[in-house]
Design goal:
This protein is α/β, with parallel strands linked by helices and 292 residues long. It has helices at 10-17, 36-43, 56-60, 78-84, 101-105, 132-138, 141-152, 157-170, 176-186, 200-211, 213-227, 241-256, 272-277; strands spanning 24-27, 49-52, 68-71, 90-96, 228-238, 260-262, 268-269, 285-291. It has 2 domains: 10-102 and 213-291, Rossmann fold; 113-211, Orthogonal Bundle (DNA polymerase, domain 1). Strands 1, 2, 3, 4, 5, 6, 7 and 8 form an 8-stranded mixed beta sheet that branches. The longest helix is centred in the C-terminal third of the chain and has 16 residues, at 241-256.
Amino acid sequence: MSQVHIPVLLQEVLHYLDPKPGENFIDATFGFGGHGFAILEKVGPSGKLLGIELDPEIYQSIQPSKRLILVNDSYANLGEIVRTYNFQKINGILFDLGFSSWHVDQGGRGFSFLRDEPLGLNYGLGKDQITAEQIINQWPEQEITKILKDFGEERFAGRISSFIAAARHQKPIKTTFELVEIIKQAIPRRFQHQKIHPATRTFQALRIAVNDELNNLKKGLAAAMEILSPGGRLVVISFHSLEDRIVKHFFRRQKEIGNLEILTKKPICSTDTEVAQNPRSRSAKLRAARII
């Protein structure tokens, strides 16, 4: 499995984390290590990096080393992981909330609605892991409407879930293409030629629901505050407004109670040059803070 994930806002991440030789950092979303290995290089020869990767397939493709501790888990369990590995004096934590290009190009779990794949949309592969197929075929219509509205900010949430309910009554909805076809039937034709694909918001909403992303983010941020050393830095890259809102409000609250200093007055976005090289960086927003 080759590294196909181009790290987003890499120079900005290094600027705000400011890793120095001998320091310890956590990459809470390690992936193929695009950010992590760059941090590890900066903290050498004695500094360490704890990398957390939720997806077991990606996790198994990376070799740990003396200075790189790798854990197959969710950053929602950050506090527990740090205690288990006795990883202390933490100078900075990075959350890159985007999913890897590998998930889109090779994952085979429905992350791209431009490929005909099973409706998984799950990062984990455990037996208890819920899938988008289960939600689409088994959850009540009202629940699906709520997911599409809350997590996808989809204006046609009610129509789409109604069409889903009618379609699954005929036969189970199994693949991305089947779901895309239903969405296209549900959305009025005049709204189908917007800037983004008509299925984008539905797939985003399902992915967030399947992986409980927003709750996990809240847990991860709260844990980060507990374990960072004074002066430690927290950097978060988000890719849609729901995540960015959570991070913005979390930073503001923590600033109000005197726990941190916000380093980015406004979120940092990718340059035109970076977007040209890596179109998936277009929606990235970076926020950074320092623990007081």
